[in-house]
Design goal:
Order of helices and strands: HEEHHHHHH
Number of strands: 2
Strand order of the largest sheet: 1-2
Distance between the termini: 41 Å
Largest sheet: 2 strands, antiparallel
Strand content: 5-15%
Length: 123
């Protein structure tokens, strides 16, 4: 039970981290900044469990800095073999508590456009 609570907390931290890993685009005159937030949790939980094995590489390519942090800190996997990582990701995404948290996050944050606009204005 304690391990599940820790994973849920890490999931929350992971989502918060995502707010700061988006892309910024600046217009040629330098006056307008557009911030795009990449949502790891949507990409992760948007993949069917049946396709996760084939999609791990795509997640690793799209999130080269974050994916190793996710596997080491959230999944607590230090082995970098594809089989172990795939097994850990499948276990994580099919965990009932994690699944409920991910659904709740989608309900609360269906879109991050307001946050993107606010952060872009701050920059």
């Amino acid at each position: 039970m304690k391990r599940t609570v820790i994973r849920v907390l890490y999931l929350g931290l992971m989502i918060a981290f995502i707010f700061f890993t988006g892309c910024m685009h600046q217009s040629q005159n330098g006056t307008h900044v557009k911030l795009i937030i990449d949502r790891f949790e949507e990409d992760l939980f948007g993949i069917s469990v049946y396709h996760l094995k084939d999609s791990i590489g795509i997640l690793q390519q799209k999130y080269p800095d974050f994916f190793p942090l996710f596997t080491a800190e959230v999944l607590e996997i230090t082995d970098t073999s594809k089989e172990i990582i795939t097994e850990g990701v499948i276990s994580f995404t099919t965990d009932f508590t994690i699944y409920r948290v991910s659904n709740h996050v989608r309900e609360i944050f269906p879109s991050l456009e307001g946050y993107e606009t606010g952060l872009a204005e701050a920059f």
